[in-house]
Predict the structure.
Amino acid sequence: MTTTHDLGQPVMTPLAVADPGGLIQSVDWVAVAPPLIAALAALAVLVADLFLPPARKRLLGRLSAAGLLAALAMLLPLVLGDTRSTFCFTSGGCSYTADHFALAFQLLVLGGALLTVLLSLHTVDSADAEKLPAGEYWFLLLSSACGAALLPAARDLATLVIALEVATLPAFALVALRRDGRGAESALKFFLSSVTATAVMLLGVSFVYAAAGTIQLQGIADGLAHAPAQLKPLAEAGAVLTLVGFAFKTAAVPFHFWVPDTYVGAPLPVAGYLSVVGKAAGLSGLALVTTLAFRPYGHTWGLVLAVLAALTMTVGNAAALRQRADTPYGAVRLLAWSSVGQAGYLLVPLAAAGYADSAEPLGATVAYALIYGLVNLGAFGVVALVGGSGRLESFRGLAGRNRWAAFAMAFFLLCLAGLPPGVVGLFGKVVVFRSAVDAGLGWLAVVMAVNVVIALAYYLKWTALLFAPSTEQVVAPRRVPASLATALGLAASAAVVLSVAPQLVLQVVSGSLF
Amino acid sequence: MNAVLIALLVLPLLGAALMLAPIGDKRALRLGTTLTGATLLLAIALAAGFDRGAPSRMQAVTDVSWIPALDVRLHLGVDGISLPLLVLTALLTFLCAVYSVKKLPAGPGGRAFTGLLLLLETGMLATFTVLDLVLFFLAFEIVLIPMYFLISRWGSGQKVRAANRFILYTLLGSAVMLLGFLLIGVKAGTFDMVKLADAHGAGLSHTTQLIAALAILVGLAVKAPAWPLHSWLPDAHTAAPTAGSVLLAGVLLKMGTYGLVRVLLPIVPDGTATYAPYLGAFAAVGIVYGSLACLALARTGAKGDLKRLIAYSSVGHMGFVLLGIASLTPTGVNGALFANIAHGLITGLLFFLVGAVKDRYGTADLDTLAGATGAALYGRAPRIGALLAFAAVASLGLPGLAGFWGELLAMYGAFDPAAGLSRPAFVTYMVLAGLGTLLTAAYLLVVVRRVCMGDPKQPAPVADLPDLQGYEAASWTPLAALTLVAGLWPALLLGLSDPAVKHLLGSG
């Protein structure tokens, strides 16, 4: 698989050889291209920011979008070709593998970041009081996306932790960028809880390393299976602590409390970004660690994740249900809680993977994450479009003011609820249900069924509000910024296409991931 | 033939999409009538081309892969069980569209109404034609959103509450039903309803069948609705606009009982046999409960709402359908399917009539309508009064009209249930059902007395009471005529359903 092989050089290179060129690790640049291009684009934006006159700063946003598009384009040869790995150890095993799992999550992360860029273009470029510093904003966003894209391809614990930190550290700053006081408080909350999670996770990682003797995910599975008896408690504690760390990032209950305040305080596109890309990063890490590294403990973490999933969806949906229509920032708050609920659904196939003792159910998580990411960012886009105080009440009668925005929002919400005409959302739920039933997790499937009904209650309330007669007099419709319209159009048409041909996204369920 | 069936589904869907375009409300309503009319013609063409010699065979079959990842196929077809329901659906939707052109309920306008009606029709027709469990679930769900908005935006009274209740109840049921479907799909390796039905539960262990049958039964019993899962129904019917009530009673309830016959009986026969006595018991209680509730509503001074009363009568009538299915005999299931169609025709007509009375009086409150002596429709609006009396006696099961055969056969099925079922239990249910027919006759006659008879000279809530209008006659006459035809010539329907039922039950 490695190029060392291809060149016919020995795999095991003794240190004291005469040929020092053989020591230089050869890197498969095509395999690492997607996160690398995002990183290069981030640096390019940062440097360009120094030299561009303020009037031309608008170019930075375009540059970021172009960088992400290029990174997305680089996924194509990888999808079409064979699985490629790079950064390989001479002892076997690689730190970076671009398999289908990694590519699907990279598609989600980079696509999500691209939509976020489109959603933010008009806020960053506008000249009003909420103006965000352009250069820093785009740099942070791209860096975070780079980390999140690196993460699903990481195959050792060190790379995993570094990638996760690259993904989250810029996110704190992104949240703090809003300069109305709320931003700083939200960022602090987010920062403290996240740093705690990282610390806990690092402790866990070190325990696991001590017990298994390696940081490679595949190696850990073998190491744990053959670990001496006296190291078992250490290994188990390490596994639990690592999982807790990832559960924080995924916002699984009871590690979810930072979510609503952080989302409300962050600039709106950033909240959307966190709900999709941030969650994807945590989730892909969780999936990798559980199904690859902790495979021998499958039944234990399977049960833990099943309970976490049940708690997460129930708490998230119950809290979302309690949102009143007239609280300030109610729309974002509702989306925040609903994203907690959705995280619960995303955890279900993970738990099923533990029970089934195979990675096969993960396909359902990947498919659902892709669908959720698309429609959730779309919903955030409409919230950005409506603007104002962000009360749910300000959506009343949107159909009269902006028909297409109302239809798009209704479609996104119904996709999130999983009810036709949002067919793709329905099939997303079907594959998740199927993974649970297949693994014999009947009780979790029933809990989820009840939660789907609870969730429908608030999604539907919102949908009905869109078409309710307006109480205030009709104001002249604001012109929708072109970038925002593009983002919404993209998300809505993609969701419609996927509703007609769900196979496009559901094929990840049947294919092999790793 | 299969092109006709596909067109039957695609036409209303395209029509619904068309309603997104900016067209005037009046024109949208007329376009809706044209489209539903064309759909009805397609349904009639399908029925005409149906090979009546082999109604147990799936005809007009289309079978193409849609989502290979989930093994979901676009598998469509009709047999003697689904064909009558298909025609009934197309007919009722068309009549509702015709009625709504002249009498659009107060709400946001004709374009949205027509779009939702067409989307609703797509879902209803799809339910009766798809032969894949996942698609069946999808079709089951398609009807929810349009019906929700029809109730919550064009309804009256506590409409939002009623609509919420309707959709949450039904969704809970269908989500549980989906779990049963998935269990079957995972264990049997296919979602294809024809293959699964031919297997008659082979390859599914007894435990699997028990769990799957329970999940599916609960889901469908909410939709049907079976007592005690019926409590969403009266509110939804009372609040819904006339077209919504007609389709809700005429078609949506049938989706539940159709699912029982199509999915539960053939695919998980062992599980069904275990639950059949309980289903029969709930059905018998439902019959008596529904008629007692109606009797209570029909009393003087009970402030009974006529729409609510007919909704409760639906609980009773659907009880007969469920009892017939629970007997697991060809006789009982045939009776159930016949009663399905009959209830769709008669209750559709009743809801049209009551809707018209409510439009004229501004209320459907029986006490307000009747006054001291009775509303005297015979004297003040003789044609409407006569039609109402006709529908009422059809509903109480007068021989010679459609309501008679289905309930008779369902009770006959319960009298001699399938082997393995406790005969004494089913005979008890039959006796209870017989008591139910008496109570049904009682409350319907009370209604006829209080609404149709009375002193025309007494002071009435409204002075001017127009009799039957042209559009009303156009949309009601077909239902009345078919009620008569089905009553006089039951072989028309039974000849279609009997071979198919025997095939599904594995005895023919």
Q: What stands out?
A: Chain B touches chain A at residues 20, 66-70, 108, 112, 119, 123, 134, 137-138, 141-142, 144-145, 148-149, 152-153, 160, 164, 167-168, 171-172, 175-176, 178-179, 182-183, 185-186, 211 (CB under 8 Å).
